[in-house]
Amino acid sequence: MSRMTRTPLRAALVVAALAAGLSACQAPSSGPRTSPASPDSPAASPAATGAIYVTGAKAGDDPCARVVSAIGYLGLSLLPPGQEEAQHWDGDVRGRFGYLRGTLEMYGPRLPAPAKDAVAAVDGVARTLSRAGTAASRRPGLLRRYRAASAAVLAACGRS
């Protein structure tokens, strides 16, 4: 008897939650609208548009602090150096590489000049390592490249 009374209630709660979620997705955004812009346009830069790629971030945040934090966050899911062959590549690790890419998109252009090449290297490697379809045989070498490039970013920000 109790099972029959719970099932309709549970179904009603699920339907209500889904409806609320869908209506929130369809509501007009209160944030800044960005449109595709040419690379020369000031609107193409996240700092100029106020575009937010990282939850809780603000365009005026310290770029080194944000990027160093994202590198550290990813590092929590990585095995120590030298164990690249044993690294698991689940959605958590791939998602953290994606999070790092968003952080670099938002803050990378404002990092110290010595970090420029390393940021490009980290972003390129992170793009590949965030994809589920990247061949397992390529991942250990790419992870080693990521470690070297992220160390250069950390050094440019005065961290190690």
Q: Which terms summarize this structure?
A:
single chain; 160 residues; mainly alpha; 6 helices; 57% helix; 0% strand; globular; disordered N terminus
Report on this structure:
The chain is built from 6 helices and no strands. The N terminus is likely disordered. The protein has 160 residues and is mostly helical.
- The overall average pLDDT, rounded, is 78
List low-confidence stretches. Answer: 1-6, 11-46
The main pleated sheet reads as: none
Oligomer: single chain
Estimated share of beta-strand residues: under 5%
State the gist of this model.
Helices cover 57% and strands 0% of the residues.
Q: What's the SSE blueprint?
A:
Blueprint: H1 2-26, H2 46-49, H3 63-75, H4 91-107, H5 116-129, H6 139-156
